[in-house]
Amino acid sequence: MSKYNPVTHVIFDMDGLLLDTERLYTEATQMLLDEYGEKFTWEIKNKQMGKKAVEAARIIIGAEKLVHHLHRNNIPICVATGSSKMNYEMKTQKHKDFFSLFHHVVLSSDDPEVTHGKPAPDCFLVAARRFEDKPSPEKVLVFEDATNGALASVAAGMQCVWIPDERADQSQLRDKVTLILKSLEEFKPEDFGLPPYEDSS
């Protein structure tokens, strides 16, 4: 029996969740700021995470197990990211087989249907519409690591599993998101009416 409302479709954010890119962004930005004696603080980074690339100037972890599991069980999955096509191609070039498992990818920075970046709900609503059977928002589960992304999924009327950075202030989202986890490896599909892992007891 599901602990939460059952879902039929799943949307994943990419940066920091499927790919360990947020750490690289932080290091690159700090290198630039070092020249000016400035610090790229968590407060600044947290405001940028999840936004379109133009607005914002954990290597595949438990994500791989979960994505393969959902794909194997014919659960429609997609990616909704703030990246542009150029950045997406660059980030995923060594992971083509993995990203081929997704039904589609919404690249918010380039997509004409995505008017506003996260925390607006646009990218998740567009992503849901592009599934063949166009599920209603309450049937969609979103996985996010960024505060802005979690807010966007909630605004879209979808359930959200939030896997925040350990430095994130969880108090502002604790009552909004559906579930907060430290890692995707903690996620139990059956809690949302999805097929359990084959090795689950």
TrEMBL record:
Gene that encodes the chain: LOC106158430
The protein, known as: (DL)-glycerol-3-phosphatase 2
SUPFAM superfamilies tied to this protein: HAD-like
Spans traversing the lipid bilayer: none
Database matches in PANTHER family: 2-DEOXYGLUCOSE-6-PHOSPHATE PHOSPHATASE 2, PSEUDOURIDINE-5'-PHOSPHATASE
UniProt superkingdom: Eukaryota
Pfam annotation, one family: Hydrolase
GO MF term (any one): phosphatase activity
InterPro entries per UniProt: HAD-like_sf (IPR036412), HAD-SF_hydro_IA (IPR006439), HAD_sf (IPR023214)
